[in-house]
Amino acid sequence: MTAATAAVRVELLKARRSRLPWVTVAAFTVAGAFGGLVMFILQDLRRARSLGLLGTKASLTGGTADWPAYFALLGQTVAVGGTLLFGLVVVWLFGREFSQDTVKDLLALPTARTTIVGAKFAVATVWSLLLACYLFVLGLLVGAVIGLPRWSAGAALHGLAGLLVTTVLAVLLVTPFALAASAGRGYLAGVAAMIAAVFSAQVVALLGYGRYFPWSVPALYTELAGPDRDPPGALGFTLVALVGIAGVAATAAWWRYADHDR
Question: Could you give the number of structural domains in the chain?
Answer without folding.
Answer: 1
